[in-house]
From TrEMBL:
Residue segments, region Disordered: 540-564
InterPro entries: CRISPR-assoc_prot_Cse1
Name of the protein in question: Type I-E CRISPR-associated protein Cse1/CasA
CDD domains, A to Z: Cse1_I-E (cd09729)
Species of provenance: Streptomyces naganishii JCM 4654
Length: 564
């Protein structure tokens, strides 16, 4: 229930987010709880992480907490100031005073300045819409996989607060009902202006052992290279309340972007909860070339945009692929392509600024080389002209921060090369499946795809374990050789099972066309080529089970190398 205040005899509802529980958390002992903003910072040492209703909600809430921390602590200005915070168990003590000073902007139900909302927001017909418009786990027209079937009729105030934050970060695009005062409305509608700001990103942040560590690890200093933070940078609650419509302006820094008001909202509620919403477009923001402002995503160079805009380089956020596990994309997280000789072609990819920041901390000795973190990736994939959320990506890679060290790139190079070892082996087993299918005279694409998926699945857990312990050794090259042996054994075993399952037709074989002519292809020859590919890429295993001349065998002309 909300708090009530007496004002000229009328009951005024209040839900103060600084003191009322609304943020779901996972404690270090495994129990779950809901805490207020104050409590989250006071108890951050005892919390493992935020647990939102969706992973994207967790990402949005972490960014909100970071905006509070940046503003309350006034920085940090540089790595030395950050090191003082890292060493101080009570470094978040100023947050309580800060929240008290700004608590008037954190009341979800305030009549004049409701949190992340626009007071008095309404349509020409004073319509109130279903909460489905802000609750992202209700699929449009697909109610079969949701716990809120078929519509969201009511939300608690705590739930509503979380979905308000999420709407600004991840709301879908599409045609929205125009609100009174929005000059962009035509015929009562505002045409698509894009998704919420975080919806453009392949979200990345760094997790420590506790939420206290996580917030500090992502608290980038103002003097971070390639990151621009203006002195006037401020979060939404230190700016003038938003009116209807939106204003085009450039972001001032991380506090601004972490709380960017991409929507205009107004909740409708009574004493027992929220029952409706008015939702419209807010401040537009293009994703192009924001790499100096937004640190929580990787970036990719866009040649089509360069041709269109006649400028170079042009960078766009590098979104996550739901089909690709985080460990397979490790290179995008730790490889630093931006470090190039003067005058060289601009990098095709830029790693996230958050990881650039952690790289600085380990390189300057503020973090021990073996300190273990998780690179967490979270993102949304939109469908049908960005009007619905189709999929959500949530994954992580545990690694020692030495992989980000700028002066010692050996560990990062071997970690990325080890992913290449896995890709090579997966391609080899995909070729084997193709060759077995061709030897049996059956369809080839399905078996190849299935074999590759299975191989990646078998390699994922071993790679994650290997990576987490890579810093335990002084010789990353020896660790890489050990990994290659693991890959040979795992994928070699899978190949054996595929050959056994191929059946009599593949064992007998048939004549196929090769580059040099025809050959009788059967499972024995397919297996010989498979072992040759593994040996060539990974080296001979400890107990070789392949003929000495296997690496000389030809490959099939029709074998297509699928992208890793």
């Amino acid at each position: 229930m909300p708090e009530t205040d007496q004002n000229n005899g009328d009951r005024v509802l209040s839900f103060d987010l600084t003191v009322r529980p609304w943020i779901p958390v996972l404690r270090r002992d495994g129990s779950q709880d809901e805490l207020s903003l104050r409590q989250v910072f006071e108890q951050a040492h005892d919390l493992r992480r935020i647990v939102g209703d969706l992973p994207t909600q967790e990402f949005a809430l972490v960014r909100l907490l970071l905006a509070v921390a940046h503003d309350a602590l006034g920085g940090p200005q540089d790595a030395d100031a950050w090191a003082e915070l890292w060493a101080d168990e009570n470094c978040f003590a100023p947050v309580g005073v800060y929240l008290e000073a700004h608590r008037g902007r954190f009341d979800l139900l305030d009549a004049k300045t409701p949190f992340f909302q626009t007071a008095g927001l309404c349509t020409a017909k004073d319509e109130v819409f279903s909460l489905n418009r802000i609750v992202a786990d209700v699929p449009n027209g697909e109610p079969f996989f949701t716990a809120r079937m078929p519509t969201v009729e009511r939300l608690t105030f705590a739930e509503a607060a979380r979905w308000v934050v999420h709407a600004h970060a991840y709301d879908t695009s599409g045609i929205k009902t125009g609100v009174e005062g929005d000059k962009r409305a035509k015929g009562g509608k505002v045409y698509p202006l894009g998704v919420g700001w975080a919806g453009n990103l392949g979200g990345v942040f760094v997790e420590g052992r506790t939420l206290h560590e996580t917030l500090l690890l992502n608290l980038v200093a103002a003097d971070t290279s390639n990151l621009e933070i203006d002195e006037a940078d401020a979060p939404a609650w230190r700016r003038e309340p938003c009116g209807p419509g939106g204003a085009e302006r450039a972001p001032t820094g991380v506090r601004d972007l972490y709380t960017w008001q991409t929507r205009r909202l107004r909740l409708h509620f009574d004493e027992t909860g929220v029952h409706g919403v008015v939702l419209g477009y807010g401040d537009p923001l293009t994703a192009r070339d924001r790499q100096h402002r937004e640190p929580m995503t990787a970036w990719r160079r866009s040649k089509p945009q360069e041709a269109k805009l006649r400028k170079s380089p042009v960078y766009l956020p590098r979104e996550h692929s739901p089909e690709r596990s985080a460990w397979r994309g490790l290179g995008a997280l730790i490889a630093n392509e931006a470090v190039r000789a003067q005058g060289a072609e601009p990098a095709d990819y830029l790693r996230p600024g958050i990881l650039e920041w952690v790289a600085r901390l380990v390189t300057e000795g503020e973090l021990e080389r073996g300190f273990l973190v998780r690179a967490r990736i979270i993102g949304a994939r939109y469908g049908t002209q960005q009007s619905v959320i189709d999929e959500i990506v949530d994954d992580h890679v545990a690694m020692a921060v030495v992989l980000l060290h700028e002066q010692d790139r050996r560990y990062a190079e071997q970690a990325v090369a080890a992913v290449g070892d896995a890709d090579l082996a997966v391609n080899a087993v995909g070729d084997l499946a193709t060759n077995l299918a061709r030897a049996a005279g059956t369809e080839m694409d399905g078996p190849r795809s299935s074999a590759r998926d299975l191989a990646y699945g078998l390699l994922e857990a071993p790679y994650r374990t290997w990576l987490a312990h890579l810093a335990d050794t002084d010789d990353p090259y020896a660790q890489r050789a050990d990994w290659q042996q693991q890959v040979y054994k795992i994928v070699g075993g899978l190949g054996d099972r595929l050959m056994t399952a191929a059946g009599d037709a593949a064992w007998q074989g048939r004549i196929v066309q090769l580059k040099h002519g025809t050959e009788w292809l059967n499972s024995a020859l397919a297996g010989k080529w498979f072992r040759a590919a593994l040996y060539k890429g990974l080296g001979r295993p400890d107990s070789p089970d392949m003929p000495p001349d296997a690496d000389a065998s030809p490959a099939l002309e029709t074998t297509v190398k699928a992208p890793a």
